[in-house]
Amino acid sequence: MTASYPAAVKSFTAKVDFTDTVLAEHVNSLQDEVNSLELNIGTYVRTSSGWIGSFDQVTTTWDTLKDRLANIEYGLNIVYGAKIPTGGSTGQVLVKSSGSNYATQWSTFDGLPSQSGNTGKYLTTNGSSASWATVAQGGETISSFLLAGC
Asked: How many domains does the chain have?
């Protein structure tokens, strides 16, 4: 007799004590399904791969569930190994350190010039760097409305 699993889930008829006759076919069918489960799941499924191996992005059908789980662990190891680097301090941001995947490092954000001593000035740019400028007095009037970017 051939097992239904993994192509289908076999349904069994419940047996009643002292009413139904249990045949060898009933027991053999159960054994076939259990053997198919064991073959598809594999051995030592609860044992980790140790995250040692290479991640396979090509294979779509695995011999056993254990093989598939091991490949998932390999992939997780790559991602885990590429985690956010430790360190950094207040005000720092994570930036790419090269064109390679996951290459990052902590860096101090320097997108704005220092605000010290620039009270009443507005931020301007020449297209490549930001700087502070003094608000025009006298003939040219810049309203708070314009300074707010409205």
From this structure: 1
- Residue 82 domain flag: no
Q: Evaluate whether residue 92 is within a structural domain.
A: no
Question: What range does the domain containing 118 cover?
Answer: 111-150
pLDDT of res. 144: 61
72, 77, 78, 84: CA torsion to nearest 10: 130
pTM, 2 dp: 0.47
5 within 8 A of 34, measured Cβ to Cβ: no
Give CA–CA dist 19/108, Å, rounded: 80
Which of these, 43, 31, 41, lies nearest to 4 by C-alpha position?
31
Residue 50 resides in a domain: no
3-class DSSP assignment, residue 125:
strand
List the chain residues with pLDDT less than 70: 49, 138-150
